[in-house]
């Protein structure tokens, strides 16, 4: 009798795992296809909208949808009461950061309206990504929403450093005007000016970034 119960329990577990795998695959497929009509019933049956991919960087469905420009799925996921709008992948990137890097500013603003954090202390932040991609509209918008213009990663990298690295004079000017520090250096004692000079960026950018010493 005991063996029979164990066998039934094992069979039940296998069926549960199989059912979850099917649901997971269907959810990912619906997200990739921007098929909100296919995803909605899965969510109604209890699928966690924060489900992450089992491979790669472990990205939540919301992040996948952003990468695939799946706006119908994005809207559906944001309507879920238990959606974690800031859920990161294993690289500590948030959905907002991905939207900004891809210059999908409408989605980025939608995420912020749903409570997405504009700061990510001690890690790469949305403003870092906006500066890196030269997304000037979002640089302005993030600052208006309280983004820390001098946010530093664990390696001491600031948004201004990334703008200087990419030789984007307009973004450099925006950040400086908002109070970005030219003398905030990385752990390797490289200031924004140093990386701009190292990469042979324009004289205009270098002149904007001249500083006295690291802080």
SSE layout and pairing:
Elements: H1 2-32, H2 36-44, H3 61-67, H4 71-78, H5 95-101, H6 105-113, H7 126-132, H8 136-144, H9 159-165, H10 169-177, H11 192-198, H12 203-208
Helix pairs in contact: 1-2, 1-3, 3-4, 3-5, 5-6, 5-7, 7-8, 7-9, 9-10, 9-11
Just give the CATH class of the largest domain.
Mainly Alpha
How many structural domains are formed by the residues? 2
Average pLDDT, all residues: 90
What value does the Rg take, in angstroms? 22 Å
Q: What structural class do the secondary elements suggest?
A: mainly alpha
Output the CATH homologous superfamily of the largest domain. Answer: Ankyrin repeat-containing domain
Please provide the ordered H/E string of secondary-structure elements: HHHHHHHHHHHH
Note the main sheet: none
Description:
The protein is mainly alpha-helical and 215 residues long. It has two domains: 17-116, Ankyrin repeat-containing domain (Serine Threonine Protein Phosphatase 5, Tetratricopeptide repeat), CATH 1.25.40; 120-214, Serine Threonine Protein Phosphatase 5, Tetratricopeptide repeat, CATH 1.25.40.20. Helices cover 54% and strands 0% of the residues. It contains twelve helices and no strands. The longest helix has 31 residues, at 2-32. The N and C termini lie far apart (73 Å).
Task: Summarize this structure briefly.
The chain has helices at 2-32, 36-44, 61-67, 71-78, 95-101, 105-113, 126-132, 136-144, 159-165, 169-177, 192-198, 203-208. It is an all-alpha fold and 215 residues long.
